[in-house]
Amino acid sequence: MILLTGVTGKTGGETAQQLLQKGARLRALVRDESKAADLKAAGVELVVGDVSDADTVQRALKGAEKAFLTLPNGQHQLEQEKQFTDLAVAAGVKHLVKMSSMEAVAHAETPIPRAHWAAEEYIRASGLAWTMIKPNFFMQNLLASAAGIRTNRRFSLPMGNGTTGMADIRDIGAVCAEVLTGPGPAGKGHAGQSYEITGPEVLTFHAVAERFTAVLGAKVEYVPMPMDQFRARMTGVLEPWHLNAVCELFREIAETGLEHTTDTFKRLIGREPTSVTQFIQDHMTLLK
């Protein structure tokens, strides 16, 4: 039995779908049962409740051999992931897989990567077998700009000239499913591994706009958004801690960015990761 969190979100949902294709026996902890109706119909056992509630988590973990931990970024994420880890140890879970990020490093300065790193360290010290999944920017985040690309042939983000190695969530889900079910390199499993996942290219968002232009056959422009404008737009959409943390993370991307890609996806899955060009082609119905 594999316990999944986050199945009504993008990465958790994709991971669940790919695990179902592998015939895995799944249980999911969800707050809103209606949002997981399709998974329930597909045979996923649901435990309804909040991940912050210890009794609910204990009930969800009972009998689980493996667990997949992906929580929304938030002020209480670290304490919730620590509690989940402690309860997984107590429940006899054999392997905990955590969704983290490439920005989560020992010297991380911004709140979200810093919290991820602290949770990683806590898990590593727990005695559990563990695997960290560490992607970069999600290609699916570009779809939030689909309406602007479709109508105005432009999109705007507060990333300046920063670079990313953005990855498709479908690829990230494939890695998660492999880690939770596969034999691992040389049949030695995936425990003790931190897998950094990128797409095949390091790109600025101006270069991403060029990919949109090439695929759509019409000029698409990326216009860097001033951080103050982004903050004003998202005030009231994100709660204050989360908004501040996201602004700091985006500022770090704009100022520092990413300098390399990894071959993690190809080594684990055996094919090249999805390119931005292929991602755009796959989502043409939203963009034309």
Write the layout of secondary structure elements.
Layout: E1 2-5, H1 10-21, E2 26-30, H2 37-41, E3 45-48, H3 54-61, E4 66-69, H4 77-91, E5 95-99, H5 111-124, E6 129-135, H6 146-152, E7 154-155, E8 163-164, H7 169-181, E9 193-197, E10 203-204, H8 205-216, E11 221-222, H9 227-234, H10 240-255, H11 264-269, H12 276-282, H13 284-287
Parallel strand pairs: 1-2, 1-4, 2-3, 4-5, 5-6, 6-9, 7-11
Antiparallel strand pairs: 8-10
Helix pairs in contact: 1-7, 3-4, 4-5, 8-12, 9-10
Report on the structure:
The protein has helices at 10-21, 37-41, 54-61, 77-91, 111-124, 146-152, 169-181, 205-216, 227-234, 240-255, 264-269, 276-282, 284-287, and strands at 2-5, 26-30, 45-48, 66-69, 95-99, 129-135, 154-155, 163-164, 193-197, 203-204, 221-222. With 288 residues, it is of the alpha/beta class. The chain has a domain at 2-135 and 169-196: NAD(P)-binding Rossmann-like Domain (Rossmann fold), CATH 3.40.50.
